[in-house]
Amino acid sequence: MLTPQQAASRAQVSRGTIMNAIKDGHLFARRDNRNRWQIEPADLLKWLS
């Protein structure tokens, strides 16, 4: 699982871009038990393609 910052680093985009993609429903993410966003690497790859 990746944090939005880790996903942004891998995708070479800003954290804001990742958060906007989540908010707009283009990138699937879920919140963990501490209410932090978690992104599956496969979902990040799907969003990038």
Helix content: 40-55%
Number of domains: 1
| Euclidean distance between termini CA atoms | 19 Å
As an assembly, this protein is single chain
Note the main sheet: 2 strands, antiparallel
Structural class: mainly alpha
Mean pLDDT: 98
Order of helices and strands: HHEEH
> How many helical stretches?
3
Organism: Paracoccus salipaludis
Protein name: Helix-turn-helix domain-containing protein
InterPro entries: DNA-bd_dom_put_sf (IPR009061), HTH_17 (IPR041657), SinI_DNA-bd (IPR010093)
Pfam families: HTH_17
Task: Give an overview in words.
This protein has a two-stranded antiparallel sheet with strand order 1-2. Helix 1 crosses helix 2. It has one domain (4-48). The model has no long low-confidence stretch (mean pLDDT 98). The longest helix is centred in the middle third of the chain and has 9 residues, at 15-23. The protein has helices at residues 4-11, 15-23, 41-48, and strands at residues 30-31, 37-38. It is 51% helix and 8% strand. The two termini are 19 Å apart. Strand 1 and strand 2 (37-38) form a beta hairpin. It is mainly alpha-helical and 49 residues long.
